[in-house]
Amino acid sequence: MAVPGYPPVRVSARLDEPLSRWLWLVKWLLALPHWIVLAFLWTAFLVLSVVAFFAILFTGRYPRQVFDFNLGVLRWSWRVSFYSYGVLGTDRYPPFSLGPEPDYPARLDIAYPGELSRGLVLVKWWLLALPHYLVLGVFLGGVRGTWSTGLSGLLVLFAGIALAATSRYPSGIFDLEVGLHRWALRVAAYAALMTDDYPPFRLEQGGSEADGDGPGAFEADAPGPAASGPDWTKPSGPA
């Protein structure tokens, strides 16, 4: 369940240097198997989200197995985006996994919500989340093939050129890219009915959450997640 003082959706990332100067040019090919698998996973995600909609409407609860699967799809997508043209933040090939993969430099955790509002489920994804869609549409734009056409895609292109020229990823671009994806993932979780907490209109830049000591954030000098903090991913009761 969610822990007071911590956001229910937590996105953490670590710039995995050193990065190859030229590998980013062929990541469209290397990531292709993931995109093929994700196409099927996202189809299942949408179908199961409809199942979750009716379950919440009639019972007030998100089926735990459906929740875990949909969280896994979001995690997998975030890792692939971080590796490829969403961020270019690592050269470590993403695992074919729905699990948390705590050693990978991009992480996503969503607290299991327990009870959810039956009324909000009717208006979250199409009405309440609409302002976020409009703002994120400016930043992220559409997707042509594998690359965003918005500000995010332009920044990633600059980062790739910087890597080729200097072998360095500009830290300011990395912080902004992770912030944009953190915002988008929070909205995705809300629109997918996985939380009742309305996403903040706030661009939290950087690899760690604003409350960086909380669970799910990366230690500054360690490859894994922070060890301290409550086990906030467990449900509050039987699913």
UniProtKB/TrEMBL annotation:
Pfam families named among the record's database cross-references: DUF4389 (PF14333)
Biased composition regions of type Low complexity, renumbered to the chain: 220-231
Transmembrane segments: 35-58, 125-143, 149-166
InterPro entries: DUF4389
Keyword annotations of the record: Membrane, Transmembrane, Transmembrane helix
Location of the region described as Disordered in the Swiss-Prot/TrEMBL record: 202-239
Name of this chain's protein: DUF4389 domain-containing protein
Naturally occurring in which organism (per UniProt): Streptomyces sanyensis
